[in-house]
Specification:
Radius of gyration: 46 Å
Shape: elongated
CATH superfamily of the largest domain: Efflux pump adaptor protein, beta barrel domain
Order of helices and strands: HEEEEEEHHEEEEEHEEEEEEEEEEEH
Distance between the termini: 66 Å
CATH topology of the largest domain: Elongation Factor Tu (Ef-tu), domain 3
Number of domains: 3
CATH class of the largest domain: Mainly Beta
CATH architecture of the largest domain: Beta Barrel
Helix content: 25-40%
Number of helices: 5
Strand content: 35-45%
């Protein structure tokens, strides 16, 4: 009877297990070797790319501004009396010199008539004194009258001339008061709310006026910029008035184009900003006094500079850098000297040449030497493409 020893069964079992493990290991190696080339081909990381270009880059300074009228006048009555007529509507455009209202003129017409009568009376006396002086002078010259009469008439004539001048001044004042009964617009502009009604008793000493007239054209926008920009603004403004664009407060739509008209004489110490004003033609009345707008000051235009999309520039330990894509579609980081961002374009002073390709989006998934593949902006989600 042939019976195997227990030790032999253990040895044979161990050998069988080793053979099975070796077979499985070989199968896994073959599978990995077959899959490796596929992974290498699919290893290109999808990113958005853009080429470095050269163009003229306008350098703008943006700030929130406040629209201000060049002139705003509270029109007040200058004489006392009943307000008889109002000849304007609220919110109406009026021209300089146009009649706005009428104060009861009868009292002032009477004062003018009284002053005119006094002038006529004193002028008649003046004429009589001139005749007397002439007569006395002839008699004295003929030795037929005293020379003392000549001196007396001459003094009286001088006094009467002064009286007539005073009367004429009183007449002019009366006429001026009468003229003030017609309230006229001091400037061309838009009327505000009417503050007096017909039938009201107006007083020249009252602070409350009849209406406020605001000049609408031209108009100005006041805004403030950091003091660090002052030197460049002064330098460029000395070459010619700088352009300013007034835009809606969100900065999406242009309203009007104007020119820098005022630079304040001192920096505001509390904020470190300098106050500026720009003047605009407002014939279309698109700018309104008190309105908040976005003011964009064109300081200068940099000619033929290298630019890339602002998203391409990354901040690292050694400063700004971009990922440059070479001819083999592999990326390498490169330090750049990045300057101003204008409307999504980053000005690159040094580090890039026109025509080179850089990564714009997807930098978080790339590393030096990795291969990338381009995708169009908005066409494929980069995270989805990477999977």
């Amino acid at each position: 009877m042939n019976v195997s020893h227990p030790r032999h069964r253990v040895v044979f079992g161990g050998l069988a297990m080793l053979s099975l493990a070796a077979a499985l290991s070989g199968f896994q190696w073959i599978k990995h070797a077959q899959a490796a080339p596929v992974k290498s081909e699919a290893g290109a990381i999808p990113v958005q790319m853009a080429q470095v270009s050269r163009q003229d880059l306008p350098i703008w300074i943006s700030a929130i501004g406040n629209v201000q009228a060049l002139n705003s006048v509270n029109v007040r009555v200058r004489v006392d009396g009943e307000l008889q007529k109002i000849l304007f509507n609220e919110g109406q455009m009026v021209s300089a010199g146009s009649l706005l209202a009428v104060i009861d003129p009868r009292v002032y017409q009477a004062q003018v008539a009284q002053a005119q009568a006094l002038v006529a009376k004193d002028q008649a006396q003046l004429a009589n004194l001139k005749v007397n002086l002439d007569r006395a002078s002839k008699l004295a010259a003929a030795k037929a009258g005293p020379t003392q009469d000549v001196d007396t008439y001459r003094a009286q004539l001088a006094a009467q001339q002064a009286t007539v001048q005073a009367d004429q001044a009183a007449l002019d004042t009366a006429r001026l008061q009468l003229e003030f009964t017609q309230v006229k617009a001091p400037l061309t502009g838009r009327t505000g709310q009417r503050l007096l009604d017909v039938g009201s008793i107006a007083h020249g000493a009252e602070a409350t006026g009849l209406v406020t007239i605001t000049q609408m054209n031209p108009i100005s926008v006041a805004f403030a910029v950091p003091q660090d920009d002052l030197a460049e603004i002064l330098e460029e403004n000395a070459k010619g008035a700088l352009q300013v664009i007034a835009m809606t407060r969100d900065g999406r739509q242009e309203i009007a184009h104007g020119q820098l008209s005022f630079i304040d004489s001192q920096v505001t110490a509390a904020s470190g900003q300098i106050q500026l004003k720009a003047q605009f033609d407002n014939a279309a009345a698109k700018l309104w006094p008190g309105e908040l707008v976005s003011a964009r000051l064109l300081v200068q235009t940099r000619r033929d500079v290298a630019v890339v999309p602002a998203d391409a520039v990354q901040l690292g330990r050694q400063g700004n850098f971009v990922y440059v894509v070479d001819a083999d579609q592999r990326v390498q980081p490169r330090q750049v000297d990045a300057a101003t961002v204008v409307e999504g374009k980053q000005w690159i002073r040094q580090g890039l040449n026109a025509g080179e390709t850089v990564v714009v989006q997807g930098q978080s998934r790339v590393a030096p030497g990795l291969k990338v593949t381009p995708v169009k902006s908005g066409s494929v989600d980069l995270a989805e493409a990477a999977r």
